[in-house]
Every structure is written in structure tokens, then in C-alpha cells.
Amino acid sequence: MTQHTTESTAELLLWRHADAEDGMPDSGRALTKKGLRQAAQVAQWLRPRLPSDCLILASPAKRAQQTAAALDLPYTTERRIGLQASIADIITASGWPQRKGTVLVVGHQPTLGRLAASLLAGEQADWTIKKGALWWFSNRAGGHILRAVVSPDLV
Fold this sequence. Notes:
Helices cover 26% and strands 23% of the residues. By secondary structure, it is an alpha/beta fold.
């Protein structure tokens, strides 16, 4: 069953890539077996909850691409949310919250954690989003609401 959002609602989902191998170049690091399992677990929880018109944006880094691919849905590779992304880059690339509907960003720390802190606390801080975890925000009437936090080890 797919959830639908109203036209006045903007949804932003921040999904940190799952566990990845060490190594260089950083952009070429692949998911570990554990990471593949984490991505599959969160994808299984997420897939039935995403509206059919969800915009899915993934960093060009291999580990983010593999995490997004676990959904088995079309996604766009977006260089602006890559390894060196800033909060402003993610906001610009996603169009959030002006863009109505749902946007899923598959990206990296520390930027995702800083964006989550900014949305919830009103200022940047170095919050950690666990590998493979998903944070789901809504913007209704200008207010940011945390709807869900999903960790791979809890689904």
C-alpha cells in the first residue's frame, strides 16, 4: 500500500548509505555484505510507504548508488549531493521544501546529520545518522516534523 501526500505537504527523506568497505578512492567504495543486507532491510520497509511520484536522488558514490538500488525503483544520480555536499547543496538539489511531494536523498555523513540537526534544532550540529538509517521529515505549514527514524537493525 502506497502512502500519498497532500499537495501542501513536502516530505524529505534522508537515507545514509549502508556499511561500506574501506579504501580509496572514496567514491569507489562498495557496500560490504553487511551493508547490502542493511540497504535491503530499510528498502523493504520503505518501498511500500513511498508515493509513486517520489523523486529519488542518490550521490554518485558507489556505496550510495548501491543503497539506492536496493529499492529497485528509478533514481537520479545527483552530483550535488555527493561526498563534498553542503546542506545548501542538498536543499538546492532536492528543491525542498518548496517542491511539494516526496524527495528521498541517499547521501553521506556529516552532511545528512547536519541537515537533520538544522531542521529539528534550528542550527547546524554534528549529529550522526547511523549507516543505513533513514530519517523522514515533513514540512507542513512551514514547520518541520520528524515522522520516522528507521535503523536497519530495527526492521
